Amino acid sequence: MKNFIKVMKALSDPNRIKIIKMLQQRNNLCVCEIRAVLKLAQPTISKHLKVLEDAGLVVGNKEKLWVNYRLNTASPSPYGAAMLTQLHQWFNENPEMREIFKILPAIDRNDICKP
Q1: Helix (H), strand (E) at residue 93
Q2: Distances from the Cα of 80 to the Cαs of 54, 83, 87, in angstroms?
Q3: Are 81 and 94 in contact, with CB atoms under 8 Å apart?
Q4: Which of 82, 59, 69 is nearest to 8 (CA)?
Q5: Can you tell me the distance from the alpha carbon of 89 to that of 4, in angstroms, rounded to the nearest whole number?
Q6: pLDDT tens digits for range 9-27
Q7: What are 21-56's pLDDT values in tens digits?
Q8: DSSP-based three-state secondary structure for 3
């Protein structure tokens, strides 16, 4: 039951849901790219990503200057895997998500991230 609760708590924040939905649209995003879309502070984004990572929903891989985050499609948690599958279908028509989906393709780390 602990694993289930961890996944549900991770998904209980609207900004974490937005991050998941963004990662469904673009497989690899760094903190500065997520920050540019959500307009939140870098430490806040990092904390959200840590919660999602601890729940097994996302994974981060270091590549040069950036840590690229993506959905954990090999999640060991059946609850995490099930929720990621369901979230593919949910909130796509939400006005806030539609706006994020419009902005996301134009976000380029080379333009917004300062090494």
Answers
A1: none
A2: 11, 5, 10
A3: no
A4: 82
A5: 20
A6: 999 999 999 999 999 988 8
A7: 999 988 889 898 999 999 999 999 999 999 999 999
A8: helix
